[in-house]
Write a structure and sequence with these properties.
The structure holds two protein chains of two kinds. By secondary structure, chain A is of the alpha+beta class. Chain A has three domains: 214 residues, Aldehyde Oxidoreductase, domain 4, CATH 3.30.365; 155 residues, Aldehyde Oxidoreductase, domain 4, CATH 3.30.365.10; 323 residues, Aldehyde Oxidoreductase, domain 4, CATH 3.30.365.10. Chain A is built from 17 helices and 26 strands. Chain A has a seven-stranded mixed beta sheet. A five-stranded mixed beta sheet of chain A has the order 12-20-19-18-13. Chain A has a four-stranded mixed beta sheet with strand order 21-22-23-26, sandwiched between helices. In chain A, a hairpin with a 2-residue loop joins strand 24 and strand 25. The longest helix of chain A has 23 residues. The radius of gyration of chain A is 27 Å and the shape is globular. In chain B, 38% of the residues lie in helices and 13% in strands. Chain B is built from five helices and five strands. Chain B is of the alpha+beta class. Chain B folds into two domains: 75 residues, Beta-grasp domain (Ubiquitin-like (UB roll)), CATH 3.10.20; 74 residues, DNA polymerase, domain 1. The chains are: A alpha+beta, B alpha+beta.
């Protein structure tokens, strides 16, 4: 048995969060009883829990409570419940007695990464772990059945199990998982298991309710922002407002007499952050003092950078001679030379912050031989590495306790806020420090979805067939900024998400183009401005699908052809993409003459096939009314259809918020939109009704959280064109007339 | 020290009068169900009830409340998650990340206090909370279900 697990179990404090060996109770003061962090999801008293796990994925208490270990992060996308369903499916346990816990990244390191990859992004939560978590559930079941068979002195093959009850067929004797779990734990873990055909699933594949809802309705769920440790102090931080700038000095004496203030700390991290934090008894005191703290900055080399500079850089890239190629076929230049009709359009998408509802935060406790961090993170192991790097302590002297995230959207894959929290905690050894960013800090120091432009050129023959297409993307590479080791001879193939040539890069085949165009060239002029880029829900499909799907409608219009028929003619070898497109067209009333403007979009990305049909009107005053959107998803195998529906609906809010309102601009190197009044987000009144078609065709696991973002904006933009004849080519839409 | 009435009980807070109610609730009273989202009354994550009316506590200084103001937070909306809005939210699995939902639930409960039969137009005009996960469609369905649950429970009581 693993020591770390023994320790935390002995403390009786496992649950949604594991608490350290020091046995810190996380308490809330005065009103209400003390709240033991992590106990909130456990239905039964943990005192009945034996020390033994069945295997790494499954712990079963004597009262039959099944605790399933979830390595990936939960940020609202429902991965937690889906993973538990996959384990429970093979385990054949009683779903009503299932709860969950997050094994810590430190435990994963100590156990030779028994839980695999903790990184939660790229819509990989289920599809990249489904195989080994199902195997974990199946192995645990075999061990439980074997333990019962051993107890009865019969052959395991004569026993069966369902709903946590094991039955010996010939005698009819029964026992429960909880009764044999301790004995099962002592058995060797089987190395060969047989997994159930998804067609026979009874827990996975069903629209079960989430495991993490109850405490979200009562305020009991402890997010990172809610962490409260004994003797904890709170910190608020301000980083240099211009990327690449530095803190010169600050005058601590100006605030040292303010209520609760314990001090001000310069915070410089390996992540390139450079700023100052104020530490106080409460966050409100820290924040109030930080606002009054005199600070001198050296704004650095980017102090004059503004949006005009960025736009000029992107425009130059549109016609630059050199570019990385992501898709090619036939002879585009020959197609242009012989074209009957040529169409050219330039599109632009803005820079955008993630803006999760819970601003960045992390709580750190540092002593000379240990560093512990409590935080919402999309990548627990990266947070552990950040704790180690920032503290200078080896990994095995660090630990991270993950909370459920108040939104992630890609932002919380980064470790900047963990580095900062640890650096501040190092100035207060032995005292836990909760670093909470203000919304303003969160807005100004994001990892921004890069602004890009695209020059689209297309050719038609005399019959109106698309004969050639050149898509030139100009803009910032996320990989160049965040993980340059992932570039391939300088090229960022992720830049071509949704439009890349199949087979060009094995890692990118989940995002290959869904059209067969006789002569095609897609290339990328990499132009990297001094802005931190980031993976933003949907990543590069967001803008690429706008460029491709809007321009194909422009080509259809130029050809005088129906946009649906025009697309399908290019999809003869893309049956799955064609199927989702036809499904939304049919349910969405495509072709109806009822005064509605309808627009389509289709995309293959994150391993799934998605499409949307939007139905809009635009009134005389130019006001957009999005009446209805029909969206289809073929994710191969659907693990929880009602959560797929929720993700698809939410994708329209995130994607259309971006298309309608969201833009970050730079003036004198500083991000200008510092809160929701200048960086608006969609509200309930503006959300269109979304009808979701889940149409899994079987045989593969596709992602769900992100692909639909790609089709949200272009479907609506195409519908606006159908309603008004106005083609919007620059986002966001706000402040633009939607009438022709 | 100042006395407040929170979730039906008198409590003492040790903070100056300019401190927003949000931070007194979270940091003085440990009621962390009320969330910080923006600090400028734009997102509604901090929504609580003052005498049954939904307000954004992040811009409500302690000076604006006294011991006679009945303050209700998500923790005090019901003893056991049984308020009709909470029941509806559970039934429809409304939350995604859930961070905005205490504020969303308090905003909806406040609206239904004043307009128990709120229609879609009233939902549109009165529920202006931001949810970045995009749960709005289920929020809307949840409001209508909460109305049904309330009606049904009244019928059973009659």
């Amino acid at each position: 048995m693993n020591k770390l697990f023994e320790s935390s179990k002995a403390d009786g404090l496992q649950g949604a969060l594991n608490v350290s060996r020091r046995g810190f109770l996380v308490t809330t003061s005065t009103l209400g009883a003390g709240l033991a962090l992590g106990m909130t999801t456990r239905p039964a008293a943990s005192s009945s829990m034996p020390l033994d796990e069945v295997n790494a994925w499954v712990h079963i208490a004597t009262d039959d409570t099944v605790t399933i270990r979830i390595a990936r992060s939960e940020m609202g996308q429902g991965t937690l419940t889906g993973l538990a369903q996959l384990v429970a499916e093979e385990l054949d346990c009683d779903w009503d007695k299932v709860t969950y816990e997050f094994p810590t990244p430190g435990q994963n390191v100590a156990r030779e990464r028994v839980w695999g990859d903790y990184s939660t992004g790229g819509s990989r939560g289920l599809r990249a772990s489904q195989q080994y978590v199902r195997e974990g559930g199946a192995a645990a079941k075999m061990m439980l059945v074997q333990a019962a068979a051993d107890q009865w002195g019969v052959a395991a093959s004569s026993c069966s199990a369902i709903d946590s009850v094991i039955t010996h067929g010939p005698s009819g004797r029964t026992t429960t998982y909880g009764a044999v779990a301790a004995n099962a734990a002592a058995l060797p873990v089987p190395t060969k298991v047989t997994l159930r055909d998804p067609a026979d699933w009874h827990i996975a594949g069903k629209p079960l309710k989430r495991l993490d809802t109850a405490d979200k309705l009562t305020g009991k769920l402890v997010y990172g922002a809610d962490i409260n440790l004994p003797n904890m102090l709170c910190a608020s931080i301000m980083d240099c407002p211009v990327m690449g700038g530095k803190l010169v000095s600050f005058n601590e004496s100006a605030i040292s007499a303010m209520p609760g203030v314990k001090g001000a700390v310069a915070v410089v991290t390996d992540e390139g952050t450079d700023g100052v934090a104020v530490v106080a008894d409460t966050w409100w005191q820290a924040q109030s003092a930080l606002k009054k703290l005199p600070i001198k900055w050296d704004l650095g080399p980017n102090a004059n950078y503004d949006d005009a500079t960025l736009t000029a850089m992107l425009e130059e890239g549109l016609s630059a001679d050199e570019a990385f190629v992501g898709n090619w076929g036939g002879d585009v230049e020959a197609a242009f030379a012989s074209a009957e009709t040529t169409v050219e359009s330039v599109y632009k998408c803005p820079s955008q912050n993630h803006a999760p509802m819970e601003p960045m935060n992390a709580t750190a406790l540092f002593t000379k031989d240990r560093c512990e961090v409590w935080c919402p993170t999309q990548n627990g192991e990266a947070a552990l590495a950040a704790a180690s790097a920032a503290s200078g302590l080896p990994l095995n002297q660090c630990e991270v306790y993950k909370t459920i995230l108040g939104g992630g959207f890609g932002r919380r894959g980064a470790g900047d806020y963990v580095h900062q929290a640890v650096k501040i905690a190092m100035a207060f050894p032995g005292t836990p420090i909760k670093l909470q960013w203000s919304r303003e800090e969160d807005q100004k120091h994001g990892f921004f979805h890069p602004s890009t432009m695209a020059k689209m050129r297309g050719t038609l023959d005399a019959d109106g067939n698309l004969t050639g297409l050149h898509m030139r993307i100009s803009g910032q590479s996320i990989l160049a900024g965040l993980m340059p080791h992932a570039l391939v001879e300088g090229a960022d193939y992720l830049q071509f998400q949704g439009v890349i040539k199949a087979g060009l890069n094995p890692a990118m085949d989940d995002h290959s183009i869904c059209y067969d165009i006789p002569n095609v060239l897609v290339d990328h002029a990499m132009r990297n401005p001094p802005i931190r880029p980031g993976f933003w829900r949907g990543v590069n499909v967001n803008q690429n699908t706008i460029y491709m799907e809007c321009f194909l409608e422009e080509m259809a219009h130029a050809a005088g052809r129906d946009p649906l028929e025009f697309r399908l003619a290019l999809m003869k070898n893309q049956p799955k993409s064609a199927a989702v497109l036809k499904a939304v067209a049919e349910q969405g009333g495509w072709g109806k003459d009822d005064g509605m403007g309808r627009g389509l979009a289709v995309l293959h990305s994150f391993g799934s096939y998605v499409a949307a049909c939007a139905e809009v009107t635009v009134d005389e005053g130019g006001n957009l009314n999005m009446h209805r959107i029909v969206a289809a998803t073929d994710c191969g195998i659907a693990v929880n259809p009602q959560q797929i529906e929720a993700q698809v609906q939410g994708s329209f809010v995130y994607g259309l918020s971006a298309a309608l309102y969201s833009e970050n601009t730079l003036k004198n190197g500083e991000i200008q939109e510092d809160n929701f009044h200048t960086y608006p987000s969609m509200k309930i009144a503006s959300m269109p009704k979304v009808e979701v078609i889940v149409m899994p065709s079987g045989g593969f696991y596709g992602g769900v959280g992100e692909p639909t973002i790609g089709v949200a904006a272009p479907a609506v933009l195409n519908a606006i064109f159908a309603a008004t004849g106005k083609r919007i080519r620059q986002l966001p839409m706000r402040d633009q007339s939607l009438r022709a | 020290m100042k006395t407040l009435n929170v979730n039906g009980e008198p409590v003492e807070v040790d903070a100056d009068d300019t401190t927003p109610l949000l931070w007194a609730l979270r940091e003085q009273l440990g009621l962390t169900g009320t969330k910080y989202g923006c600090g400028i009354a734009q997102c509604g994550s901090c929504t609580v009830h003052l005498d049954g009316v939904a307000v954004r506590s992040c811009v409500m200084p302690l000076a604006a409340v006294n011991e006679n103001t009945k303050i209700t937070t998500i923790e005090g909306l019901s003893d056991d998650g049984s308020h009709p809005v909470q029941q509806a939210w559970a039934e429809l699995d409304v939350p995604q990340c859930g961070y905005c939902q205490p504020g969303m639930i308090m905003a909806v409960a406040g609206m239904l206090n004043a307009t128990p039969d709120a229609d879609d137009a009233q939902i549109d005009s009165q529920i202006t909370n931001i949810c970045r996960c995009g749960t709005f469609q289920r929020v809307r369905e949840g409001v209508h279900l909460a109305k049904e649950i309330t009606l049904k429970s009244k019928g059973e009581m009659a």
